[in-house]
Specification:
heterodimer, A: 122 residues, mainly beta, seven-stranded mixed β-sheet, four-stranded antiparallel β-sheet, B: six-stranded mixed β-sheet, globular
C-alpha cells in the first residue's frame, strides 16, 4: 500500500522559511515523479511543484519560482520542499502526491498524503 | 497558463440520480485530463485519468468522456458516499492546473 506522510508545517511569520518533508513507502520511490500541491483554506487545489524520478527536471508554478525549491532523496524515499520568503498567500494545506509515471508531464496524481498545514501570519 | 473551468459550481442531487459535471480547457490538452474527488478534511482521490480511464478500485458508476477541450464526468447512479467536491485537472502543460471544483450535495 502506498503511503505518503507529510511533515514540517506550522505557523511562520511572513518572510520566514520552512522545509516540508514527505516520507514515502509502499512503492519503488525512485521510479516515480513526485509533486507538491496546496489548498488554501476553503479554496480549490493548486499544483505547486514537481520533480522527475531522477531529479533531472523540476517545475514550479510562477507564484513560487525563486522562493520554493523541490528536491528528493531516493536513497531515503523522501521528498522535500524548501520554502523561503513566505507570504500570507502561501497559507494552505500542502499535499505530497505521487505521479503515476516517472515524468511530471502527462501523468495524473494517483496517491496523495494527508497534508500538512502551513500558516504564514504575524 | 491553461485555464480550466467547470460547470456547475455546485449541484444538489438525490441518491440514485445521474449526475454530469462538465470541464472545459482554454486550449488543447490532448486527452491529458483527470478527475479527482475530495471529501471535507480529506486528501483528493484520483477517479479518472486520460479522459476516460477508470483508476483502479474506483466504482464503475464513475465515467469520463469528451474530446478536445470539452470533457465530462458522469456518475450513473449517485450513492451516499459520492457527496463530495469534484475537480478536473490537466496534466498536459505546466503549470498543471485544476478547475475550481463542483460541489455535489444532498437534495
Amino acid at each position: 500500500e502506498v503511503q505518503l506522510l507529510e511533515s514540517g508545517g506550522g505557523l511562520i511569520q511572513p518572510g520566514g522559511s520552512l522545509r516540508l518533508s514527505c516520507a514515502a513507502s509502499g512503492f519503488t520511490f525512485s521510479s516515480y515523479a513526485m509533486n507538491w500541491l496546496r489548498q488554501a483554506p476553503g479554496k480549490g487545489l493548486e499544483w505547486v511543484s514537481g520533480i522527475t524520478s531522477t531529479s533531472g527536471n523540476t517545475y514550479y508554478v510562477d507564484s513560487v519560482k525563486g522562493r520554493f525549491t523541490i528536491s528528493r532523496d531516493n536513497s531515503e524515499n523522501r521528498l522535500y520542499m524548501q520554502m523561503n520568503s513566505l507570504r500570507a498567500e502561501d497559507t494552505a494545506v500542502y499535499y505530497c502526491a505521487k505521479a503515476s509515471g516517472s515524468g511530471t508531464y502527462y501523468f495524473p496524481f494517483d496517491s496523495w498524503g494527508q497534508g500538512t498545514l502551513v500558516t504564514v501570519s504575524s | 497558463d491553461i485555464q480550466m473551468t467547470q460547470s456547475p459550481s455546485s449541484l444538489s442531487a438525490s441518491v440514485g440520480d445521474r449526475v454530469t459535471i462538465t470541464c472545459r480547457a482554454s486550449q488543447s490538452i490532448s486527452s491529458h485530463l483527470n478527475w479527482y474527488q475530495q471529501k471535507p478534511g480529506k486528501a483528493p482521490k484520483l477517479l479518472i485519468y486520460a479522459v476516460s480511464s477508470l483508476q483502479s478500485g474506483v466504482p464503475s458508476r464513475f465515467s469520463g468522456s469528451g474530446s478536445g477541450t470539452d470533457l465530462t464526468l458522469t456518475i450513473s447512479s449517485l450513492q451516499p458516499e459520492d457527496f463530495a467536491t469534484y475537480y478536473c485537472q490537466q496534466s498536459y502543460i505546466s503549470p498543471f492546473t485544476f478547475g475550481p471544483g463542483t460541489k455535489v450535495d444532498i437534495k
